[in-house]
Design goal:
With about 140 residues, the chain is α+β, with helices and mostly antiparallel strands. It folds into 2 domains: about 110 residues, K homology (KH) domain (GMP Synthetase, Chain A, domain 3); about 30 residues. About 50% of the residues lie in helices and about 15% in strands. It contains 5 helices and 3 strands; from the N terminus they run αββααβαα.
Length: about 140
């Protein structure tokens, strides 16, 4: 019987404290690796990459790393370049993070910034402002 929170789709507890801690350790180490600028790839040349989140699988064999290049331009090219260099990056991380087995790394673009912008635009739209004005008029009566 597995103790994983991910086995039961009705379980709303989310990842364990251990998974979150490992993810944060990997995120900090990745930020250091990117800051040193030792990764040589044409799609990463002159690009500053932000690591927004690291999600580890329950068995700690795989890690999905959410990244966003500064300014959000050429995000797909950056992700492809990072995935191409993932073995080198994993080797660098193995020197910085103390784990028995370092997870395999899979880089993906973080879409949460785009979703937040979309929600912000919706909230600031004329239709929402009109609805809010109607609600406040009804409350005043």
């Amino acid at each position: 019987m597995s103790n994983s929170h991910y086995d039961d789709p009705n379980d709303d507890r989310g990842p364990s404290h251990r998974l979150l801690r490992v993810g944060e350790n990997i995120r900090h180490a990745l930020s250091e690796v990117f800051a040193r600028g030792e990764i040589i790839d044409p799609s990463l040349e002159g690009v500053s990459v932000t690591v927004t989140e690291v999600r580890c699988s329950p068995d700690l064999r795989n890690a999905t790393i959410f990244v966003m290049p500064l300014g959000g331009t050429n995000a797909q090219d950056v992700v492809v370049g990072l995935n191409r260099c993932s073995k080198y990056i994993r080797g660098q991380l193995s020197r910085m993070v103390t784990m028995k087995h370092l997870p395999k790394l899979k880089f993906t673009s973080d879409s949460s910034f785009g979703e937040a912008d979309h929600i912000e635009r919706l909230l600031n739209s004329a239709h929402v402002a009109q609805d809010l004005a109607k609600d406040s008029d009804q409350e005043d009566e």
